[in-house]
Design goal:
Two copies of one chain form a homodimer.
Chain A (H helix, E strand, L loop, with lengths): L2 H25 L6 H39 L9 H76 L5 H41 L11 H38 L3 H22 L10 H24 L6 H29 L4 H9 L4 H37 L9 H19 L1 H23 L4 H52 L3 H11 L5 H42 L12 H34 L1 H38 L6 H48 L11
Helix pairs in contact in A: 1-3, 1-6, 2-3, 2-5, 2-16, 3-4, 3-5, 3-6, 3-12, 3-13, 4-5, 4-15, 4-16, 4-18, 5-6, 5-11, 5-12, 5-13, 5-16, 5-18, 6-7, 6-11, 6-12, 7-8, 8-10, 8-11, 8-13, 9-10, 9-17, 10-11, 10-13, 10-17, 10-18, 11-13, 12-13, 13-14, 13-17, 13-18, 15-16, 15-17, ...
Main location (chains A, B): membrane
Family (chains A, B): Belongs to the H(+)-translocating pyrophosphatase (TC 3.A.10) family. K(+)-insensitive subfamily.
Subunit structure (chains A, B): Homodimer.
């Protein structure tokens, strides 16, 4: 019985228990008055209803795909069913993660509100942080449990072919996350937009006012979009990054010590997170943000120390141990750097956001132009960090590790393994990052409860502070998620290329070494198949972004109509005499969001498969590269421009300029930024990974088809 | 003496004479009243002043670069000085093209206005069309003259090394164009924004009102941005596309017949253009657009016929002749397709623009979101056309042409030569496209003259119709220019790769064939140098776009301050009692625009050189690819979103909804779209080509440096 995967299982299990303990603690807090409980319940009911309908819609697609995987992929394997099983379990995991996130947040909202009312800032911070920790810890723990468990079982029952089913876990996870991000993102922003447009602008009632028929849908949206979507996103990133590294190690034929080293890094970082979440000071807190930063930095410091200590337990040479610890630490250490960069471009403490606020004095148009410019430029330093991590980790791996096979490309692959470890190091501390992040939506929801339940002003002040910090952690987490997705996707992409070459060697019955050099020259950037593929990849990203942006507008339109109708037909609502029909708005948002999420999602599955099967694996390689090169900067642009616009509006409000022309102009920026940062932007992350994991799962089938069409060596356009 | 280049010279010379004849005709038209002449002169003076200052600023940079080219590139050649000479002449040509465009347009404006007043639609259409033809014909003719002339001279005095100096012509042209696009784009949009913000919104006076101190700067801006910039752009595209094809043929060692075939295609299309410009019906015109379309389609039909007839004069085999004609025709024929696609997404006759106008009922934010979505999706079909042309022309070339050297890659390069011919076919009809395009700014200027000179309403109606059609041709030309730039850049990029391999063979003194396969595998998309380079390319595009967008806002702010100051300190202006100080605003716009255009321009030169010299040519290859894959779709997005917003505003106005909230929201979209479509978007075109031509010029020097650093075979990160 291998020791380290078992340790992974144990730490994962402990993390889950610890999360349950924290959850019980949170649920034992006072849920507040009847009214608060009522509101909280309405939101929870709507969110659950949406999620279940989304899962039902999705499950048809998942069953079809599982059958396709079973017949196209599993039938060629000695032990059929494992890949389909991995896919299904990965997908169920994403659903569970989303549900869990939603469950915790909706239950905690009224309790945080009550804590703010009874215990002030310190108490409210403690309750919301622990609620966040429930999510952070349980996601990381479930992911680690699944990976360790599947690795143990698969490598035991199918020692020759356990790796692809492990990536299928990632495929299932990223696919469901993609749909959750898209559907939830459309729902949340359409509901937000619809409720605001009629409520704030036409009827002149404040945000979160219970008279607004869209108010519950708006709050449900926060939970199905920001919370469930984000929870699934992190779970998916974790699974994909770790399985990508393991898959690469498998392809390279590295010794078990290296594979177990990856699991060890993940386990040790989770261990450090247990300590980190308890280091939050909640007594006499002046600036909650510095408390949170302290907890994060401590977790990273402890992780790095554990990486260096633990790597020597693997029985590798000193150089190898040091290199493993160094590359993983590199990943962990750059996380705060990415966070800082994002913070600079999206927080109102620095000049970029203040410039946007300044432009609001002129017109909404200059707010848009300047904010878009900020989004563009913000991508540059993050991309620089990504290529720096790639370069340094590659160099360390190149000189420290040995890869026996793959001839002259052995050292190259050793370098890429260094990058894989860096990406694992970056993702391994996800537990604490998510704790800080999911604390945001909890505070946001609490804020809504405070408003709707009509609690006193000083309570609102406490939850307002928590909410605004939550906005910062939410924005910076996106930068972190995108950077880690870029590295993970790069690693997975290169693993895919060598998996394809191995498959070719197997199908053509030629030695791998004789195919290697030629195959690598076939994915040269001058190959027309690759070039055409690259443009197809860009087209997917553009199509997808356009569809998701448009869906928000279309859905919001329907919600606007419905809210207007209610105000028109039942004038008593605005005079507090009638209860608005919240459920109808929730229902419309649910129906439309689900109607809109299928087409872009299907394109992401169908186009790469058609490209791979018809044009050949070289075009598919180009497609993935094109999507990566255009998708990562676009995700950064959209997330950061959105964050910057949001905070520029807040900055204008802080100066007491509400209801001025300047504020109006800033609100336009914020509204444009909403679908940028919460619908289209975050969907690009799972999209890039779906393209990769999908391709890995179908790699062998594609090679087989290419051989049958006689294009496996040339591509459709002979090269 | 080779016959065909001489024919090229003769047709080019004839075209120039014909353009002069048309210019004389236009200048002999009645320039209107004293007031009209006065306004026209003020605009011309401002535009000339700006252009000369821009040229002065640029010339310092050009001298430095010419010296750098002389020492870094020319010294290693047998006949030094040719590359630097090509560079300087190409650059001067861009300046001349810009000046010419500006000269014709500013002189014609008052004459078109007068024609509209005296002769109505038919006469006004005729004058503005001929003014456009002066530009279209002279640009294409000068470009053809330069290419034919330089080819004749260079291949005669330096038969071994004439090709790089020819590409240097393209480098000079695209570099100057880049600066003109950026500087002019900042000027025009900042002046427009500044004049509108204070004039229309604050002071409540109409557009083009002579009381607005920014009104002359605004009209100057149209000339230095849209006219001079666009003229330089087309001249540059023509030069780069044709020289790229010739350069590729040279690299491949194709027979002279093929090289001359390229010049023949360009010459024949110009010949067809002479006929086409005369096919415009101006009598009893109901819909001027259909007249214009007829002229364009006729030119294409005649070109295609001439291609098929002419290709048999080259002394090639029947297959080769047919393939040359077919690929060139493919290029010419897809031009209207790209135009149609762009028209669909940017004209108010179709649903995308109408949807934006519809969203204006809700809020400016939904206008922005929907328009941005339209821009994104509009890139998809254009990209599809680009890859279709690439695929089909590659397949034709692959089967029809023979390339003797380059071993197993010979047929591949034959395929790429097919694509090169398609790109030449696409660009060869530029003369007629530009005639239709530059007719836009002429009408726009005429419109301004009509307004400022206070001519009667029915005159305004005529110039309004012409102006709105001008907007359509302007938008569609951008799509055409981007598609042709993408193909030209692809061809040049592949030629560059093989130029580098040839240089390596020469420096390392190894036979090319032994280096070939290995070198091609070195630019595989899995090479970390290539990947890092690709992200650097994206970073350049993002940085560049952000800077140019921001520059518009910064410059506009200063102009706003100045106009406000004039209104404040001299209240007589608004009461028609005092003349505003137009010159000061022109001066501020000039100074700021020039101050802003250096940094982004330098980045485009310095970053690729540093990447190539320090990280190796593999990283440079990745950089160009990354910039191409992210720049082309971004250029389409920005141009088309801008065009769609512009016309959505016009559509709202057409419905008589001026001064409503809906119109206000649509104006916000238009204002955001302005720098999208006229500053940042159009600058990406020359940017992509500067990266390519710059790299070709410095290719040998980079290889030498890489050899010295021992990274020529591996790149900085060993692969």
């Amino acid at each position: 019985m291998p020791v380290i995967p078992v340790i992974g299982l144990l730490i994962g299990a402990f993390g889950l228990l610890y999360a349950l303990y924290l959850a019980r603690w949170v649920l034992r807090q006072d849920p507040g008055t009847d009214k608060m409980r009522f509101i909280s319940n309405a939101i929870a009911t709507g969110a659950r209803a949406y999620l279940f309908r989304q899962y039902k819609t999705l499950s048809i697609l998942l069953v079809i795909l599982a059958i396709a995987i079973f017949f196209a992929v599993d039938m060629t394997r000695r032990l059929p069913g494992l890949t389909a099983l991995g896919f299904v379990v990965g997908a169920l995991g994403s659903m569970l993660a989303g549900y869990l996130g939603m469950y915790v947040t909706t239950r905690s909202a009224s309790r945080v509100a009550q804590a703010a009312a009874s215990g002030g800032m310190g108490k409210a911070l403690q309750v919301s942080w622990r609620a966040g920790a429930v999510m952070g810890l349980s996601l990381a723990s479930v992911a680690l449990l699944l990976i360790s468990g599947f690795y143990l079982v698969f490598s035991w029952i199918a020692p020759e072919e356990w790796a692809t089913p492990l990536v299928a876990l990632g495929f299932g996870a990223s696919l469901v996350t993609l749909f959750m991000r898209v559907g939830g993102g459309i729902y949340t922003k359409a509901a937000d937009l619809g409720a605001d447009l009629v409520g704030k602008i036409e009827a002149g009632i404040p945000e979160d006012d219970p008279r607004n028929p869209g108010v519950i849908a708006d709050n449900v949206g926060d939970n199905v979009g920001d919370v469930a979507g984000m929870a699934a996103d992190v779970y998916e990133s974790y699974i994909v990054t770790v399985t990508a590294a393991i898959f690469l190690a498998y392809i390279l034929g590295l010794s078990t010590a290296f594979i177990e080293g990856i699991i060890l890094i993940a386990s040790l970082a989770l261990l450090a997170t247990f300590v980190g979440v308890n280091l939050l000071r909640t007594k006499n807190v002046k600036n909650p943000m510095s408390s949170i930063s302290f907890a994060i930095y401590s977790t990273i410091a402890i992780s790095v120390a554990l990486f260096f200590a633990g790597s020597f337990a693997l029985g590798l040479s000193t150089t190898e141990s040091l290199a493993m610890a160094a590359t993983a630490s590199l990943g962990a250490v750059v996380a705060p750097l990415v966070v800082k960069i994002t913070d600079y471009y999206t927080s109102y403490n620095y000049s970029p956001v203040r410039q946007i606020a300044e432009q609001a004095k002129i017109s909404p148009a200059t707010v848009i132009i300047t904010g878009y410019g900020v989004g563009l430029i913000s991508a540059v330093p993050v991309l620089f960090v990504i290529i720096a991590v790639l370069g340094v980790s590659y160099a360390i791996g190149f000189f420290a590790f040995q890869v026996a096979s793959f001839g002259s490309y052995g050292q190259y692959l050793a370098g890429i393994f260094g990058t894989a470890l860096a990406s694992v190091g970056l993702l391994a501390i996800a537990g604490i990052i998510i704790t800080a992040d999911s604390y945001g939506p909890v505070s946001d929801n609490a804020n809504g409860v405070v408003e709707m339940a009509g609690l006193p002003e000083q309570v609102r002040e406490v939850t307002d502070v928590l909410d605004s910090i939550g906005n910062t952690t939410k924005a910076t987490t996106k930068g972190y998620a995108i950077a880690s997705a870029a590295l993970a996707a790069l690693v997975l992409f290169i693993a895919l290329m060598f998996e394809i070459m191995k498959s070719m060697a197997r199908v053509l019955q030629q030695p791998l070494t004789s195919l290697l050099a030629d195959s690598i020259s076939k994915i040269s950037i001058i190959n027309p198949n690759v070039l055409i593929g690259a443009f197809i990849g860009v087209m997917i990203v553009y199509f997808f972004t356009s569809r998701t942006l448009g869906a928000v507008g279309r859905t919001a339109m329907e919600i606007v109509e419905e809210i207007r109708r209610q105000f028109r037909e039942r004038p008593g609502i605005l005079e507090w005499k009638e209860q608005p029909d919240y459920a109808r708005v929730v229902d419309i948002a649910t129906r439309r969001a689900l109607g809109e999420f299928l087409l872009p999602g299907l394109v992401v599955i169908v186009v790469p498969l058609v490209t791979g099967f018809v044009m050949g694996w070289q075009a598919l390689a180009g497609l993935i590269m094109g999507a990566l090169v255009s998708g990562v900067p676009r995700a950064l642009l959209m997330a950061n421009a959105g964050g910057a616009w949001d905070n520029a509006k807040k900055y204008v409000e802080l100066q007491g300029l509400k209801k001025t022309e300047q504020h109006k102009a800033a609100v336009v920026g914020d509204t444009v930024g909403d679908p940028f940062k919460d619908t289209s932007g975050p969907s690009l992350n799972p999209l890039i990974k779906v393209l990769n994991t999908l391709s890995v799962v179908f790699a062998f089938a594609i090679v087989l088809a290419n051989v049958h069409m006689h294009i496996v060596l040339t591509g459709l356009f002979p090269f």
